[in-house]
Design brief:
Layout (H helix, E strand, L loop, with lengths): L1 H12 L4 H24 L37 H27 L12 H11 L1 H24 L20 H32 L3 H7 L5
GO cellular component, one term: chloroplast
Pfam families: Chloroa_b-bind
Protein name: Light-harvesting protein
């Protein structure tokens, strides 16, 4: 841009004109500022889905935020409540995946717990009562955790999903704490996908995951 203004002056006068050079520099600065402002005003792209715009609420301030919200739910619901819900589902899914495999090799001493197929075991416990106990205790823990969530939404400063449960003291180091938070989210998200796949595969094959691997049965 500077050469566009300065070079014609030299051609006609045979020397550089400082005034035109200053004006050309000013023009360059103004042009750069214009393009910077224009680029800043454009919506940023999501890291998770590069062809979609990043939702405004997902500004990267939360651990594990990669801009994944294709339905734009974060524009209608509080992001702290959404993270609380995500963490609960992550933790339940991780426990479910472990339980899915343990149930195939270990059974409680009663006929109703003897099924090796996880889906068959589910229907047995649902009909005989143990599943009702699980629902009862799950509902109880959900009720007693509700006040903490309400206080968080009212501005108490509590982090989503935090209940002070850290028996190994892993959260004493702030840097390691952030790392463990990210690890929990990544493993939990993977577990949510995994348990969905395990359930559907069991419905199709009527086998547990270990039995499917042993018999190399991937399809019905």
């Amino acid at each position: 841009m500077m050469m566009t203004f300065v070079q014609p002056c030299r051609l006609f006068t045979g020397r550089w004109n400082p005034l035109i050079k200053v004006r050309s520099n000013s023009c360059c600065v103004a042009t750069n500022l214009y393009f910077l402002r224009a680029s800043a005003s454009l919506p940023q792209k999501s890291k998770a889905i590069p062809f979609l715009d990043r939702p405004p609420a997902l500004d990267g301030s939360m651990v594990g935020d990669v801009g994944f919200d294709p339905l734009n739910i974060s524009s209608y619901l509080d992001l702290r409540w959404l993270r609380e819900s995500e963490l609960k589902h992550c933790r339940i899914a991780m426990l479910a995946v472990v339980g899915w495999f343990v149930q195939e090799v270990f059974h409680l001493p009663n006929e109703i717990y003897s099924a090796s197929d996880p889906t068959e075991a589910f229907w047995k416990t649902l009909a005989t009562g143990p599943m009702g106990q699980i629902v009862l205790w799950t509902s109880f823990f959900e009720i007693i955790s509700t006040p903490a969530v309400i206080q968080m939404l009212q501005g108490s400063g509590r982090e989503p999903g935090y209940f002070g449960f850290d028996p190994l003291g892993l959260g004493k180091n702030p840097q390691l704490y952030k790392r463990f938070q990210l690890s929990e989210l990544k493993n939990g998200r993977l577990a949510m996908i995994a348990i969905g796949g395990l359930i559907h595969q069991s419905f199709l094959t009527h086998m547990g995951a270990i039995q499917q691997l042993q018999q190399h049965k991937w399809f019905p």
